[in-house]
Amino acid sequence: LFAEKEGRKKSGMLVGLSRIRFGRNPRPGDRLVVEASLVQKFGDLVRVAGRVSESGERLAEGEILISLAGGAEE
Questions:
Q1: Checking phi first, is residue 7 left (phi over 0); if not, alpha (psi -120 to 50) or beta?
Q2: What is the pLDDT of residues 28-66, one digit of tens each?
C-alpha cells in the first residue's frame, strides 16, 4: 500500500478493515473499476473508502485503515 505525503511516497501497513461487503466473484474478462477516496487522516493513520465494480455491479466495498508510521521512504 502506498500513500502520497508531501510529494514523497511512503509504504504503509494495513491495520484495519471495516464495513467490508462482497458481491459476486469477478470472472475472467471482467473489466473492473476500482474507486478509492480519503475518508479521514489523523497523524500517520489514513482511512480510505473503496469500491470495486464491474458494469455498475458491486463486487466489493468497504474501508481500510492504513498506518504510514515507520514506513520506508522511496
A1: left
A2: 999 999 999 999 999 989 999 999 999 999 999 999 999
